[in-house]
Design goal:
single chain, 14 helices, 18 strands, globular, binds FE(8)-S(7) cluster, binds iron/sulfur cluster
Length: 512
Amino acid sequence: MTTAATPHAQLKILGSRSEPATNTLCDRTGSAFGSCGSSAGREELPAAVWDKIRNHPCYSEEAHHHYARMHVAVAPACNIQCNYCNRKYDCSNESRPGVVSERLTPEQAARKVLAVASAIPQMTVLGIAGPGDPLANPEKTFRTFELVRAQTPDIRLCLSTNGLMLPDYVEQIAALGIEHVTVTINTIDPAIGARIYPWVYFRGKRYVGMEASKLLIERQLLSLELLGERGILAKVNSVMIPGINDRHLIEVNRAVKQRGAFLHNIMPLISAPEHGTAFGLSGQRGPSAQELKELQDACAGEMKMMRHCRQCRADAVGMLGEDRSAEFTTEKLMNLPVHYDTEARKAYRQSVEEQRQAMATERETELAALRTHRPAPSVLVAVASKGKGRINEHFGHAREFQVYEVGTDGVQFIGHRRVDQYCEGGFGEAESLDMVVRAIQDCVAVLVARIGACPRKGLVQAGIEPVDDYALEPIESSVLRFYADYCQRLHTGERTPPDRRDAVIRQGALTA
Ligand code: CLF
Ligand code: SF4
């Protein structure tokens, strides 16, 4: 039970001293399906803002197909307790609940950044996101950023925090050129906060209950205002906890937009009992795929939503959704060649931009053609991709499916569904196929590079059309072409409209 109608509504911390900041991303005007940070939405943004997000994989959905981030786990301590966090595991602000393999000193972290950037030219962002709270470990966090800024100036610096200490450090953040800051805000109502945060430790004193939440919320909202005043792009992460803060997140969305937040990322609670969190142990469930989408859609009228978050680990390395951290352990780093070539990295980014432009042109051509068709309801389509914005993954090898909503207004990424790989050692598992079906059963089709006869049959029986006609083609233009064909078949009666179904967000995964 929640929230908007709670008797404690009068305690909500409302009112802002700032007007909406100019760097707030525009409402969903124009194309109803403009993606977060896509080339299509570029003209909505000031040039300086576009320049900051164009190759940041979290701030731009389009960029996440092409660019990678890395996290360094230099910040072990935390100053609050969240009921969805177990200290043994990564910070849920920015990470899936997986164990951090290694904690690093700032010097080790800087060496790791250099080695990764030398090996992975698409790595454009260094984030510090835990495993505790970076600003509860300010010396280690800022020392790391200083070292990285000095040695690798073309890498963007990114910070994720619960916001408690941010007002104290905002000048330092600005001075270091950290252009992207995430603040996790789960509520603006202290009564709801008391159900999420058992305690907060602030300037030598431990606070509990509503007093703790009130303090945290005030500091979080102030953080957004201070960041906006300095032109730092603020993203807000919120964990959707059904029955506790779900509908209330619409109010959170309004409040953070009012204070200049650039992007809002509503993530599903992950609370499997084996994580040992308070919510996991008490049986608090996470949302279903459709519950999450409905809430994100409800907030999308207010501001742009991030829907491609992978809730990654505090030591993740690689594209969102992949984790190459095992390739860069401290031991292996000692033997890795380091050749940081800024010109080669620049050339790589240039070639990616050319590919993005070509894909955007193709998408607009397909969209223009689609608009000549009779209107039909929008549908969801799953895609198997291993990056570069293309349908380039075999069904049996996919560890996640990307889900797009497509209609005559356009195509939009709306989320991903993590699955166990169907094909292991050349054989498919019936159990894995069932799990894939449950994960994408709200989709009318799945677009893949290749698929075998057995899973094809199982998908058809489940009412999901397997399609390999667009192998290696760009995702968005292919989804539009599939939809044009689908509408045609709908109108001739060759295809029947889908039942409205929900899908399952997988809970228990512990490693990326
Ligand atoms: Fe890392 Fe966060 Fe920066 Fe991205 S992650 S500190 S903004 S570089 Fe990204 Fe990972 Fe989601 Fe975070 S997908 S958990 S939003
Ligand atoms: Fe855990 Fe992060 Fe919350 Fe701290 S802020 S308790 S590390 S989820």
